[in-house]
Write a sequence for this structure.
């Protein structure tokens, strides 16, 4: 028994020694980037793993210098990056503890990632406290840059407001006769914000439609929605909004489709893009599908060199088309490269932040303008399409794709989303 | 010996479990300093009587008055506080602790009532007291042994010693010699009775062994089918025809 | 022999650790803070465990303490570390006192499960209530100490260590009192305890309330040292499981054991997470089983053995 | 009326699900006095195994109807293999230990098995929609329902009747009841208690696996699905009374129907309902609605 314990203890000592030497060996020709993503739990398959794949693929290409121009220089400011893969699961509190370990124990140079809004919201103040250069890749809640100015934290994609404002506008354009709408969203910041923005926008732009009084907010990862589907089937509303994602979304689509829910009602799925490639024929036709911006299935056919590189390389390596999270993590890594290229591989956190603040850059599928939240929050176009199974190709496609420019679906810098929508979306240029 | 007022007055005690009558019409007065033997066949209601007096069972009706206090409705703890202790047919001690620890706990609970339970348990005075008890009950040799490894006889001694440390005025012993070999039983009872005499306790004890009864008690209560059929001196009782038929006869 | 020196060891060890923390890197200070905070809850569970009671739901009190700090911070703007701690521990203690009226009648697995049930009720309420942060929880500002907002975590670390020391000493004293010694006796034979004149229900109620106060204090300190609370990390049944796990890991031998056990757990989890991010549950669960099977006395029994071999 | 019927059906369907997953838990508790935390693992393993093989068989071109056989086979295989291994390798050596320690051991096992699933099946979710697609849907009370979901009610009824029959009409039931009533007495009567334990544990494991295997076609089978189930089945068992099949049935009905009512009429309180029922029962009948009062032995 004692022996067992001792080996254990020795193992730990050895492990810590490894980590320390790793820290010392770090020089200007290499940097470490921590990439947190869901590696376990229901969100891993649809979100976490593609996201991690996107990050690895892009980092690898950067290390080798094989990205298309203008990003064909080797490395991050010349340094080659090692990625540390981390699980994002286990709750915000655990992530806070892990984040501190990343910074204070493992001395990573940059942290790029995070899918859950709950995690991002908890980590933003910690990142500021520790003065750690951090790029949020996918999480969506607008609160991060609205509740306090940030100095070290960035987000390289649009926030949830643009998803839901764009969804409302798309609905107005394609379904002008829609009389009533209801929603099913997860019971946390992401779901609550999404529903609120969608609801408020429709109140502004389609004042004749009516929101249902009974909107559903099941717990995240609930998995079974039988009663909710019944309740929505009986609801008079002719449209259902959902910001479900990952396994929850797929379960909901299955269960809803089996019960003809999407034949009777218009389904609007702001994060539906991740399901498109994975579900194949099982995805019902006629869903309004978003990808939280110009990513995944919505932009598969964009002809730019960068986009074609991304789509083809990803398909080659992983055997499937890249979904939204792959793009989002890929472009966050790209943003890190841009910051390092500008500030140098030995740059301080401040210098890196200065380098990224307020810039505009060309990402794989779109142009990213870091113009909100004092130059920390990206503004991008956002769009929707309608699903259709292409039986010739044996895969899903989207039709009627329509994109709205950033200035149309996002508030100007310094104005909170809710105030902006309630104020009639002043200054929106559509 | 006799004093004007009995220390324990039991009146019209009745205990039923559904249709089964476990005790009926029990009327007993016990005087200070008496040593009372309770005899009867298995299931005659002896242990039931002890359990009622010590608050383990609540009588269906009747009253038990101890030194002017009504005991019916009180639980074991309150009965103990009032001044009645008991030992058990199967010794009830803390079997994973040593003999010394058992006694220390018993003494500490007896001494530190109420808020004083939050004062440090092991004081030098307590240790002295404990050693005195160990000596009086001839338990010194077993002091540091865990109860688990001890013989039934030693456990029963410990059981009784623990019951007595609270300095009760009445002590009820439920079959003190059961499980003790024939050779040991008189030695055992000598130790117990000698120690109890020092403390001047009134004792009621349930016993099957008529030799023990004859030798140690001043008065006998014979139970049959939940009722007391004889209440007299041991000599008379053993000669009594009813006792012979219903108590002794059945046993042999 | 070790037992007699417990107070001294706590006192000297505490001072040494405070001095060490001044020079130690931040992450080690963090681990110590987390470990010591959680250890308070373990102290309470140790008191229960010695009595033969294992609660599979003490995350209820842990979470109450943590959320009290969050509410004090966000709703009332209370920043003082002692006020927050006091609030968390008191609320948890009050809840423990009330729940104790039910719990004191239950033993064994029923005790364990009723505790889980009650903690899950709180979990259900918080997860569903937007104003209580639902699944996201709250961020908590760094506490002030005597009105001063510290620049680093070190002062908070000192406060936590001192509170840990005081708690260890108090519990150590409690375990020497008459009611404190009523652990094995209650486990062995409740009837005898009653007949000796002590109410088992009262003794258990007292222990239960104590453990609730300690768990509440632990939650409050944890919330402050992490700067974040959320239901899955603070109240869910898995958290209760973790607390029990650390109790078993530590062993019931001594009030110092919970502190060692908590630190070992903190380190184990950190490295499991670092070396095998996919498999940290397997490592933690495997360790758990190993301890249950091969080291029932926990880490403390190793220390005792080591001490014996030496002398 | 439409709404009423819908709530009733929704409630029954959810109750059935709850009953299937909690029946195994309560049986194991009743006989062995073990609160088996790794019941959630049986559920998860059942779900993964059936989803995996339904997918594989479908790829191989087998008719979709085979899916039902796969479901049953998965439950039995998972129950036999996991149940047998866990009981023989871990639990058997713990019966002399504290009950609570056994709970903790099953908790440790649960953690381990969660990650073993990841090793065995990877992180990608599995879909096994074929059996659900095969049965199509019907319109009832103005809304479309999938027939597969409705069959859940039948499966639950079969499990309930099966348990009742086993306990009350067979020799095995008599033996089980003797052991449930008093373990020592069982031994004294010459019952091979270790064998009873092994078989009970396997039986409970099969029921846990069946819950997962049967629900798999309706969900995305992804890591972490066992955690939720433990909490739900736990709530059912606490409400119904630990160790009582009847209690589990009534507990499932109460929780399932109330939850359906909440989703339709007051969605905000949906999750809370489960725990509110639990809290109310705990306060007024802490031993659950149907648990036999446990005699305290002197």
């Amino acid at each position: 028994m004692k022996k067992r314990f001792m080996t254990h203890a020795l193992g730990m000592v050895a492990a810590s020694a490894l980590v320390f030497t790793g820290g010392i060996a770090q020089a200007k020709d290499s940097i470490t980037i921590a990439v947190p993503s869901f590696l376990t739990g229901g969100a891993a398959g649809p979100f976490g793993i593609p996201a991690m794949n996107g990050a690895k693929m892009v980092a690898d290409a950067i290390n080798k210098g094989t990205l298309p121009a203008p990003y064909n220089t080797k490395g991050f400011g010349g340094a080659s990056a090692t990625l540390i893969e981390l699980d994002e699961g286990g709750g915000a509190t655990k992530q806070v503890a892990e984040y501190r370990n990343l910074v204070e124990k493992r001395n990573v140079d940059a942290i790029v990632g995070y899918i859950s809004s709950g995690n991002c919201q908890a980590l933003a103040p910690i990142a500021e406290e520790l003065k750690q250069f951090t790029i949020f890749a996918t999480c969506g809640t607008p609160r991060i840059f609205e509740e306090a100015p940030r100095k070290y934290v960035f987000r390289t994609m649009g926030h949830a407001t643009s998803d839901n404002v764009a969804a409302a506008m798309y609905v107005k354009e394609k379904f002008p006769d829609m009389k009533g709408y209801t929603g099913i969203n997860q019971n946390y910041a992401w779901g609550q914000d999404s529903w609120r923005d969608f609801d408020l926008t429709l109140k502004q732009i389609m004042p004749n439609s009516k929101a249902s009084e009974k909107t559903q907010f099941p717990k995240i990862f609930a998995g079974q929605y039988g009663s909710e589907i019944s309740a929505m089937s009986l609801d008079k509303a002719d449209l259902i909004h959902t910001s479900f994602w990952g396994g929850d979304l797929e379960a909901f689509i299955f269960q809803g489709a089996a019960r003809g829910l999407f034949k009777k009602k218009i389904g609007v799925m702001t994060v539906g893009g991740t399901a498109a490639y994975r579900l194949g024929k099982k995805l019902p036709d006629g869903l309004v599908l978003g990808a939280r911006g110009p990513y995944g299935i919505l932009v598969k056919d964009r002809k730019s060199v960068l986009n074609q590189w991304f789509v083809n390389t990803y398909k080659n390596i992983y055997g499937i088309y890249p979904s939204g999270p792959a793009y989002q993590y890929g472009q966050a890594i790209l943003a890190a490269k841009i910051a390092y290229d500008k500030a140098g591989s030995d740059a301080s956190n401040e210098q890196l932040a200065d380098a990224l603040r307020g810039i505009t850059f060309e990402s794989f599928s779109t142009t990213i303008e870091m113009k909100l939240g004092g130059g920390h929050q990206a503004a991008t176009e956002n769009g929707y399409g309608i699903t259709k199974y292409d039986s010739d190709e044996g895969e899903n496609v989207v039709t009627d794709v329509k994109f709205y420019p950033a200035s149309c679906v996002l508030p100007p810098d310094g104005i909170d989303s809710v105030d902006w929508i309630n104020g009639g979306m002043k200054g929106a240029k559509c | 010996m006799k004093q004007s007022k009995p220390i324990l007055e039991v009146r019209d005690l009745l205990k039923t479990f559904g249709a089964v009558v476990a005790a009926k019409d029990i009327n007993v007065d016990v005087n200070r300093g008496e040593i009372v033997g309770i005899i009867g066949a298995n299931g005659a209601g002896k242990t039931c009587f002890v359990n009622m007096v010590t608050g383990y069972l609540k009588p269906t009706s009747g009253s038990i008055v101890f030194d002017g206090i009504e005991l019916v409705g009180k639980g074991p703890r309150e009965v103990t506080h009032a001044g009645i202790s008991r030992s058990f047919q199967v010794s009830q001690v803390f079997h994973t602790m040593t003999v010394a620890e058992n006694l220390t706990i018993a003494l500490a609970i007896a001494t530190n009532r109420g808020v004083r339970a939050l004062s440090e348990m092991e004081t030098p005075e307590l240790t002295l007291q404990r050693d005195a008890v160990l000596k009086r009950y001839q338990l010194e040799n077993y002091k540091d042994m865990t109860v688990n490894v001890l013989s039934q006889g030693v456990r029963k001694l410990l059981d009784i010693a623990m019951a007595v440390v609270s300095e009760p005025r009445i002590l009820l012993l439920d079959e003190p010699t059961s499980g003790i070999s024939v050779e040991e039983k008189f030695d055992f009872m000598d130790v117990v009775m000698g120690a109890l005499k020092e403390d001047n306790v009134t004792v009621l004890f349930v016993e099957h062994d008529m030799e023990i009864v004859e030798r140690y008690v001043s008065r006998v209560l014979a139970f049959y089918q939940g009722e007391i059929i004889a209440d007299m001196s041991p000599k008379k009782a053993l000669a009594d025809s009813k006792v012979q038929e219903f108590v002794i006869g059945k046993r042999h | 022999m070790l037992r007699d020196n417990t107070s001294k060891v706590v006192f000297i060890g505490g001072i040494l650790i405070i001095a060490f923390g001044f020079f130690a890197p931040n992450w080690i200070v963090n681990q110590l803070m987390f470990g010591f905070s959680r250890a308070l809850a373990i102290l309470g569970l140790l008191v229960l465990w010695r009595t033969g009671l294992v609660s599979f739901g003490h995350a209820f009190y842990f979470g109450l303490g943590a959320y009290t700090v969050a509410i004090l911070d966000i709703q009332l703007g209370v920043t003082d570390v002692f006020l927050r701690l006091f609030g968390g521990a008191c609320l948890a203690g009050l809840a423990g006192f009330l729940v104790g009226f039910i719990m004191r009648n239950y033993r064994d697995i029923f005790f364990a499960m009723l505790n889980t049930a009650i903690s899950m009720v709180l979990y259900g309420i918080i997860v569903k209530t937007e104003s209580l942060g639902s699944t996201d929880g709250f961020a908590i500002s760094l506490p002030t100490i005597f009105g001063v907002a510290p620049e680093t975590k070190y002062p908070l670390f000192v406060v936590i260590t001192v509170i840990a020391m005081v708690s260890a000493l108090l519990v150590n004293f409690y375990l020497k009192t008459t009611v404190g010694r009523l652990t094995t006796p209650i486990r062995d034979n409740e009837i005898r305890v009653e007949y000796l004149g002590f109410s088992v229900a009262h003794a258990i109620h007292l222990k239960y309330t104590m453990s609730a106060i300690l768990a509440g204090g632990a939650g409050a300190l944890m919330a402050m040292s992490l700067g974040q609370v959320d239901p899955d990390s603070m109240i869910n049944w898995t958290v209760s499981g973790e607390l029990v796990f650390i109790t078993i890991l530590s062993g019931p031998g001594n009030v110092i054991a919970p502190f060692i056990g908590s630190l070992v757990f903190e380190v184990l989890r950190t490295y499991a997470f670092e070396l095998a991010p996919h498999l940290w549950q397997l490592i933690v669960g495997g360790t758990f089983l190993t301890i249950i099977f091969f080291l029932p006395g926990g880490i403390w029994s190793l220390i005792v053995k080591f001490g014996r071999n030496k002398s | 009326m439409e709404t009423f019927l819908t709530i009733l059906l929704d409630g029954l369907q959810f109750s059935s699900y709850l009953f299937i997953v909690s029946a195994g838990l309560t049986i194991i508790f009743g006989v062995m006095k073990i609160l088996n935390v790794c019941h959630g693992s049986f559920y998860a393993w059942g779900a993964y195994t059936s989803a995996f093989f339904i997918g594989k068989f479908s790829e191989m071109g087998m008719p979709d109807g085979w899916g039902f056989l796969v479901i049953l086979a998965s439950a039995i295989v998972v129950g036999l293999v996991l149940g047998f291994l866990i009981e023989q390798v871990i639990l058997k050596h713990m019966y002399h230990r504290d009950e609570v320690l056994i709970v903790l051991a099953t908790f440790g096992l649960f953690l381990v098995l969660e990650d073993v699933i990841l090793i065995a099946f990877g992180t990608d979710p599995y879909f096994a929609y074929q059996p659900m697609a095969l049965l199509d849907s019907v319109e009832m009370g103005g809304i479309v329902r999938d027939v597969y979901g409705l069959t859940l009610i039948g499966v639950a009824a079969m499990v309930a009747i099966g348990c009742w029959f086993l306990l009350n009409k067979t020799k095995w039931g008599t033996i089980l009841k003797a052991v449930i009533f008093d373990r020592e007495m069982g031994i004294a009567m010459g019952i091979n208690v270790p064998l009873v334990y092994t078989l009970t544990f396997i039986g409970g494991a099969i029921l846990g696996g069946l819950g997962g295997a049967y629900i798999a076609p309706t969900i995305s089978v992804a890591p972490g699905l066992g955690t939720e189930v433990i909490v739900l089945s736990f709530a059912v068992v606490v409400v119904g009374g630990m160790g009582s099949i009847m209690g589990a049935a009534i507990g499932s009905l109460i929780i399932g129907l109330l939850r359906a009512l909440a989703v339709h009429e007051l969605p905000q309180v949906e999750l809370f309902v489960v725990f509110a029922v639990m809290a109310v029962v705990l306060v007024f009948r802490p031993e659950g609605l149907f648990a036999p009062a446990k005699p305290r032995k002197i």
Notes: Chain C has a mean pLDDT of 88. Chain C has 15 helices and two strands. Residues 2-237 of chain C form one domain.
